[in-house]
Amino acid sequence: MSSRPDDRHRAVDHYENFPVASWLCPPRLRQPVAAIYWFARTADDIADEGIATEGERLADLFTYRNLLRASLGGNGVPAGRWPHVFGPLGQAIEGFGLPGQPMFDLLDAFEQDVRKTAAGAGYADRAELLDYCRRSANPVGRLLLHLYGVSDARSLAQSDAICSALQLVNFWQDLGVDLARGRYYLPAEDCRRHGIDPADPASWPDHPAAPALVRELCDWARALMLEGAPLVHAVPGRAGWELRLVVQGGLRILRRIEGLGYRTFRQRPRLGPADVPPMLWHAARM
């Protein structure tokens, strides 16, 4: 196995709906927020980008997990291929007491992605998909709430709802991209209810019922987002305003999907400068 990560996990340009560590983020939290982001982003790239085999990806994620365990042990920057990740992460762990379990949950989700992609497998129903979101998205929100000093059960549940909604929005936004990569997030149960064969992904883009299915799934994501939205009042100061824009960004993408007639197998909606004024307006009204 090659020792150079770029041999298998090429650097890629990432389009992000919801930027992190922006000017709204409190200055003292920008370092740990960026450290969390790059920890998750790099692990996701290991699982998803480049030409690595399934075995190589899982081996690299196993090594990554051990480096996380060493970082949590407080023994300085562990030796390895990702010092630019674990150096800042170690500082954030030491300075802010970041809990380890959410980060291990993220790695569990990325490993699941590798295995499901290799097997050409999808998700049976919404419950199974939400369980994936519980590990792939919700940990980030819980880590951020830890930084903000928010830990009550209601806020954690609202954070989980927002993060799961954002993950679902990303799925329905990226249907065409994920289909080409062999990742199938449409719940099989929902597919069958609309007369779509979950075992025949190649038929999904042109199926006449696909837009109705995507619309229903977008409604589900919107309901989750609105369920979690009151969290913006529990997060203090500038961080609360950033969260408002995150929520509004997710809702805005859903409007973009609607504007495409829910045909995201053919076109990926993006946010642009014209979306900023309405997002700010709706954020202020929250």
TrEMBL record:
Listed GO MF terms: geranylgeranyl diphosphate synthase activity; squalene synthase [NAD(P)H] activity
UniProt keyword tRNA-binding, yes or no: no
The keyword Protein transport is assigned to this record: no
EC number assigned by the record: 2.5.1.21
Enzyme class: transferase
Listed InterPro entries: HSQ_synthase_HpnC, Isoprenoid_synthase_dom_sf, Squ/phyt_synthse, Trans_IPPS_bact-type, Trans_IPPS_HH
Top-level lineage group: Bacteria
Record Gene3D superfamilies: Farnesyl Diphosphate Synthase
GO-annotated biological processes: terpenoid biosynthetic process
This protein's UniProt keywords: Transferase
Protein name: Squalene synthase HpnC
Naturally occurring in which organism (per UniProt): Ramlibacter cellulosilyticus
Taxonomic lineage: Bacteria, Pseudomonadati, Pseudomonadota, Betaproteobacteria, Burkholderiales
